[in-house]
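Q: Here's a chain of 507 amino acids. Please give me its 3D structure as tokens.
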Amino acid sequence: MNRRQFLQTLTAASTVSLLGARKPGSQPNIVFIYADDLGYGDVGCYGATAVSTPNIDALAAEGLRFTDAHATSATCTPSRYSVLTGQYAWRKPGTGILAGDAALIIDDNQLTVPAMLKRAGYRTGIVGKWHLGLGRGGLDWNGEIKPGPLEIGFDYSFIIPATPDRTPCVFVENHRVVNGDPADPIHVSYKQPFPGEPTGRANPELLKMKPSHGHDMAIVDGVSRIGYMEGGKAALWVDEQIADTLSDKAVRFIEQKSSEPFFLYYPVHDIHVPRLPNERFRGKTGMGPRGDAIAELDWCVGRIVETLKKNGLTENTIIILSSDNGPVVDDGYKDEAVEKLGSHKPAGEYRGGKYSNFDGGTRVPFLVKWSNHIKPGTTTDALVDQIDLLASLASLTGQTLRRDDAPDSMNLWPVLTGRSRKGRESLVEEAGVLSLVEGKWKVIRGSRKEPYEAATNIELGNAPAPQLYDRIADPAERHDVAAEHPEIVQRMLATLDRIASSGRSRA
């Protein structure tokens, strides 16, 4: 152990002592299942009837269901950044949707959920989609891949580096590409194609799923992606096996850590594009690959629950399930999602979806189950944000955050366990512009950006003047009442400006 490592270990040990973290033996296990692009109306316990989600519905029946829970952003990278750091992503430049070869956007000195839980004696693991960058820039995919999850608090990591529709299409376990071959080195580019490598644009005859917009670069497993790559043939994933591979790793992590408190962050790849669920789920819903991917997601949830049960961990494990943003139907591939949608409403009654300032962009399913601690089958309309997980889990483990830690995360542990219905007073949402939710009101900043995206058929919620909506009387945000309440608009915009300029919202 070198001097720096010794000092870090000593500091961590002292921090736990000073902050009074509870003894590891008294801590419940924590599993956070983070779905991708799953909408408020995409599961049965939130009103879906065209697709069956018995395992997700069981979490609601056995735990607490939130009806006013939000991701911080209507897109993936900023939501994932916020949930792990307790800081609104819009505070830090460069936290938009990342390319597959982007550098790590979480600073080494930032407190994260896994680092905080490690202070309390947890073993921490991530299995699934990362999309927060790796390395420092100019990463060599054939060597050690760091910094990454292990450097910001995880003990174990098995990840998709970015998204399933972006290169590189390989798994990374800890610091190495899985099945990497030095004789077939991997190269990744987001600027230009590699000579001799087919692309979706030039070679559509090679595709098993064709793009509807974008997604016409490197071809991997018969699907064209965003970005280019060459090499690594033995390491390339098979899309239809991703869910099985990730769930296998998640199950193994639970089984290996069953004798000590653990935190598993399980950001699954479903139901993000390209939607190519295992053949076991094809045609299971009648809604095409998007519906079948929801069924596959539900199976993954059931597998985690069953593993906990088999290992006698059900009563001492907290399961949290949510989604990184709202839904999108056509997100770049011709997969019949639009044609077979039918009467299904992915965002439920809410307007917009992924990419949108309207509530369909950030209002998401949020379920918490903890046997013998949370009353089964309960529902709450308390206002909560995923960003609150860090401060809330710190409270669970007996830790007090320093002022600079998690500047936007609130301790809502009593709310997350159903002992209180008093949620947040306000929260900020991000979708190109910022919005403020405060009580029954929501104000959206004025913007000259496009109000509608034709490719995804989503209302983005942009307008030149600020918009104001009554969330109680008009949950679908159909009636802008800014002109009727100019004083409320000005007060809320001033509050939003104050939150943005102060660098923090946690007292």
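Q: Can you summarize the key feature?
A: Residues 356 and 460 are 4 Å apart (CA to CA).
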